[in-house]
C-alpha cells in the first residue's frame, strides 16, 4: 500500500478514540451536564485496558472491564455533580487530575509492555474488496464500525426520532419546563452522565487495543481535551464531530509516518501538529457562528444544576 492509503487507513483508527470520547461528552452535555474529566477518564481506561488484556489475554474482556471502571467513575461523578449538585467544572477537573494520577501510579509496572492481544481487522465481505476505499474503510476492526457508524446512527434515531430523545434535549435546554410536564430530569441527567463517562473511559481502552498497543505515562497527551473541544467546535453536530475526529486522526498519522520514514521535519514539530491544528480549529468556527448563533450554541441549561424548588 502507498503512503497516502496507509495515512487514510490509520487516520480512521487513530481518530476513533477522540470520536468516541467526544460522543460521550456530547451525550452528557445534551442532558445539561458538563464533564471536563475526559482526559483523566481516557487515562484510566487506557491503563485498565493494558492491565486487563495482559491478565486475561482477551481484548473483549479488557473492554468490558474498562466499561465497568467507567461505570463506577460515572456513578461517582453523577452523584457529585447531579445529586449533591457540586460545581460541574470543579468535579470534572478533579476527575482529570485524579484519573491521570491514578493511571500513572498503577500503570508504572506496565510501561513499555506490548499488548500481544488486540483488536483484529474484520473486513466486510464484498465491500472490503473495493479498490483502495475497501481497504481504508471496510477492513477495520469492529470497534471502528461501532464508533463511526452504529453508535452515531443509534444516537441520531434515539435523540431526533423518538419522544425520549425530545425529553433529553428538553432537559438540556430547560429542565424546569421538562420537569413540569413529568420528565424525570435527575434520572435522565444521571443516566447520560454515566453513559458519557463510560464512553470516555472506553475511548482510552480503544487506543490501547486498536492503535497504540502499549501504555506509557502521558499517553493520552491532551486527546481528552481535544475531544471536549470537538463537541463545541463541531457545534453539537455528530457529523462535524466525526469528521473532525478523522481529521485529527490524520494529523496524528502524519506525525507517526514522519518519524517512521525520517521526514526532514523536526520531531518536535510533528508531535505538536495535533495541538497546532486544535488551535486553528478553535478559531475557525467562530466565523461560522456569527450569522446564526442560535444554531451553533450549546444547550441552554449546560452546567446549570437543577433545583425542583426553582420551578
Automatic annotation (TrEMBL):
<feature type="transmembrane region" description="Helical">
    <location>
        <begin position="126"/>
        <end position="159"/>
    </location>
</feature>
<keyword id="KW-1133">Transmembrane helix</keyword>
<dbReference type="GO" id="GO:0005886">
    <property type="term" value="C:plasma membrane"/>
</dbReference>
<feature type="transmembrane region" description="Helical">
    <location>
        <begin position="89"/>
        <end position="106"/>
    </location>
</feature>
<keyword id="KW-0472">Membrane</keyword>
<feature type="transmembrane region" description="Helical">
    <location>
        <begin position="6"/>
        <end position="27"/>
    </location>
</feature>
<feature type="transmembrane region" description="Helical">
    <location>
        <begin position="215"/>
        <end position="233"/>
    </location>
</feature>
<dbReference type="GO" id="GO:0022857">
    <property type="term" value="F:transmembrane transporter activity"/>
</dbReference>
<keyword id="KW-1003">Cell membrane</keyword>
<keyword id="KW-0812">Transmembrane</keyword>
<dbReference type="Pfam" id="PF02653">
    <property type="entry name" value="BPD_transp_2"/>
</dbReference>
<feature type="transmembrane region" description="Helical">
    <location>
        <begin position="268"/>
        <end position="289"/>
    </location>
</feature>
<dbReference type="InterPro" id="IPR001851">
    <property type="entry name" value="ABC_transp_permease"/>
</dbReference>
<feature type="transmembrane region" description="Helical">
    <location>
        <begin position="190"/>
        <end position="209"/>
    </location>
</feature>
<protein>
    <submittedName>
        <fullName>Permease subunit NupQ (NupQ) (PUBMED:21926227)</fullName>
    </submittedName>
</protein>
<feature type="transmembrane region" description="Helical">
    <location>
        <begin position="34"/>
        <end position="54"/>
    </location>
</feature>
<feature type="transmembrane region" description="Helical">
    <location>
        <begin position="238"/>
        <end position="256"/>
    </location>
</feature>
<feature type="transmembrane region" description="Helical">
    <location>
        <begin position="60"/>
        <end position="84"/>
    </location>
</feature>
